[in-house]
Specification:
- The chain is an alpha+beta fold.
- It contains 5 helices and 18 strands.
- It starts with a helix and ends with a strand.
Length: 278
Amino acid sequence: VSWKTGLPTMGVMLSRTSISQTLDNLQLLSEAYRMPALLPMLDSSKSFLLVVRDDCDDIPPSQRELINKSRRIHESQEFSLYSLPFDSLLSAVINPYPIIAAEMQEEALISHNGYYTREENQNFFTEPFEEADGQQSYFTGGSNTQNLRNSQWMYVKDIPAFDPEQEYIFSFWVKGIRDDLVLRSRLELEFRDAYDHGYDRHTPELFRHLKIIDGDWGLIERKFQLRDAEDMIRWRIRNADLRRSECIVAHVIIRPVHTDIYKQGEGWIMKNNRFYIP
């Protein structure tokens, strides 16, 4: 399509697009959070051309929203073309802060050590690293800084009111995503029983679970399920190719998929580890 139309394309492989340009492109397709850095550089009088495969059922909600705001201009057996006006793209990345603030006012939320949920009992785990040595933080608490090649294991034990029948979300913020190879570091995630015997292990690359981009920070989010209430999690971020590079992690949250967690600070509101600002 790019060859026939002469339009630049963001859907490329085997290219040498810079890390910063790639992340700026991905912001356009991510959930609404911050104003994408790329938008001020674009011509607001021109529309985007979307190429959508008709047999693709696994389209993320943020990308589905862009399709819904577009107008179909061509249809074939393999794909459809849509025109997305610049103003429609702007409306898709609108600041969610007023919506989240209204939720906190309208919902009957219950306080749990500075966090708020609709649940009567606390059923989530947080690690803000408030007593850690790290000097850099993401909005609240502190951070944990480790060498990527020789990182130490971190343990999560005794998640409050843990229910092994439920699916959980493990999320945290990581700094340095614009540095070479950092997002190719491995999230080493092990599930262990009450006797500290491992029974399941996952080692995905960080970029595969990157949900939100905010400057040099990225939100990593992965679903998981333990098999017993007394089980524990052992995790770290590691990259054997980066001998001198450090990894900075901030604000860990583990919560059931259907539990929303709120927190409010000076000039921000947090929902499910997303920190919204006016």
